[in-house]
Amino acid sequence: MEMPPVSDPIKPPAARRPQEALELVSQALSDGDLEAALAQYEGAARLVTWQQQPTAAGEGPDAEVRSALACFMALRLPLAVRIGTVLSAPGLALVICERHTTGTDPDGAHVSYRGHGCAVVRAQPDGSWRIAADAWHLGTEIPL
């Protein structure tokens, strides 16, 4: 007899401030928890990264976000985010940040990315905030 899949009984944390949504994504990716990272995005969110992953025909925006975050997680490196500016309007916020990761990837190569990004974060009916659109502009750091 096949057992039904077990779902995680602990729900990912919900952002209570716009910038917290980005911080929770960073923490979840650093911890290797893709589902917790995805929980910070709206179902139809858009995510543009420095390295777009192809989305199969017929797959929606949620597949685009999943693919991009999974690609980053494959590096198995911690992600730091520093919040710069939060521009708020009723129910909506623009969060400008800087993201950084450095370390050794699973193939043993040294990796170091840094760059600015921004996210449009929207208030949800339950009072939490989720990312509606996110842009990551990471570039390879060149050592001096």
Quick tags:
six-stranded mixed β-sheet; 6 strands; alpha+beta; 3 helices; globular; 144 residues; single chain
Description:
- With 144 residues, this protein is of the alpha+beta class.
- Helices cover 22% and strands 38% of the residues.
- It is built from three helices and six strands; from the N terminus they run ααβαβββββ.
- Strands 1, 2, 3, 4, 5 and 6 form a six-stranded mixed β-sheet that branches.
- A hairpin with a 2-residue loop joins strand 2 (80-89) and strand 3.
- The mean pLDDT is 87.
Please sum up the structure shown.
By secondary structure, the protein is an alpha+beta fold. It contains three helices and six strands. Strands 1, 2, 3, 4, 5 and 6 form a six-stranded mixed beta sheet that branches.
Mean pLDDT across all residues, rounded?
87
Number of strands: 6
Order of helices and strands: HHEHEEEEE
Oligomeric state, counting identical vs distinct chains: single chain
Strand content: 35-45%
CA radius of gyration is 16 Å
Number of helices: 3
State the share of residues found in helices, binned by percent: 10-25%
Through-space gap between termini: 60 Å
What ranges have pLDDT less than 50 throughout 5 or more consecutive residues? Answer: none
Largest sheet: 6 strands, mixed
Structural class determined from secondary elements:
alpha+beta
